[in-house]
């Protein structure tokens, strides 16, 4: 099950990128942008992988040299999208309107350069306890 979630999350991160650099969503019948071969790796900083605690106030990850921007996707334990955002920085505050219930959540980040994904973080789980 984890492999299919990881694959699904990777596809969702690629597809969720609407406005970073020259990236666009594919039209019907077109394929998703190719992921460039890269040695760049995105590491999750906060919330830490497999952490347990209150709802995070922000998400933070390591930078990819030369990246034009990043797409972050947050899904719940049944892969329902909870939030997606594209940013140019390596962190983003959680909007106050986004209130997450107790449970397990997964997040992933894709880095983009010239409209192509050049790095992917893989998914990271965290658990919210209220």
Brief rundown of the structure:
With 130 residues, the chain is mainly beta. Helix content is 12%, strand content 38%. The strands form 2 sheets. Strands 2, 4, 5, 7, 8 and 9 form a 6-stranded mixed β-sheet that branches. A 3-stranded antiparallel β-sheet has the order 1-3-6, with no helix packed on it.
Major sheet size, sense and barrel closure: 6 strands, mixed
What is the CATH C level class, in words?
Mainly Beta
Quote the distance from N terminus to C terminus.
Answer: 26 Å
In the residues, how many domains can be counted? 1
Number of strands: 9
Shape call? elongated
Uncertain residue segments: 1-38
Number of helices: 1
CATH fold name, please? Answer: Immunoglobulin-like
What average pLDDT do the residues reach?
80
Features:
130 residues, mainly beta, Immunoglobulin-like, 6-stranded mixed beta sheet, 3-stranded antiparallel beta sheet, elongated
